[in-house]
User: Which sequence fits this backbone?
């Protein structure tokens, strides 16, 4: 039956054959490009997963570091508070001791002032003066008589 076809039909069939061949080649090259694209997408996905895993581990490390730093700061602040409390206790004890010594010194000063006043009053009497210091010549000014 193809022998009975006219030359125009042969030309049309040849043209269609070439077009079909062109389309098959184009499809094969498109399939190759699609396969290349799939491989690239797979590689990109693998890179993204690796980057995600690296980022996750880095964030986890950073979180642990921050927790450690927070714990260290809390320990340091607690130790500083304890040192401050101990220093305050020492300062309070020193202030109490100082106030005790001030009270004792004030009481001693008053006692000595009272003793001094009493002693001055008692010793100002001529009787006591003569009794204790009668034999001390430079304490007694004697008006000398002219010879």
Assistant:
């Amino acid at each position: 039956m193809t022998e009975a076809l006219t030359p125009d039909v042969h030309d049309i069939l040849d043209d269609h054959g070439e077009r079909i061949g062109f389309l098959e080649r184009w499809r094969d090259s498109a399939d190759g490009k699609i396969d290349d694209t799939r491989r690239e997408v797979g590689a990109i996905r693998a890179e993204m997963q690796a980057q995600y895993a690296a980022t996750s581990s880095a964030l986890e490390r950073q979180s642990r570091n921050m927790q450690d730093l927070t714990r260290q700061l809390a320990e340091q602040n607690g130790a500083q508070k304890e040192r401050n409390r101990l220093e305050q206790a020492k300062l309070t004890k020193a202030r109490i001791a100082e106030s005790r010594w001030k009270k004792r010194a004030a009481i001693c000063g008053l006692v000595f002032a009272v003793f001094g006043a009493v002693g001055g009053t008692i010793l100002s009497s001529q009787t006591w003066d003569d009794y204790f210091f009668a034999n001390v010549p430079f304490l007694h000014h004697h008006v000398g008589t002219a010879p």
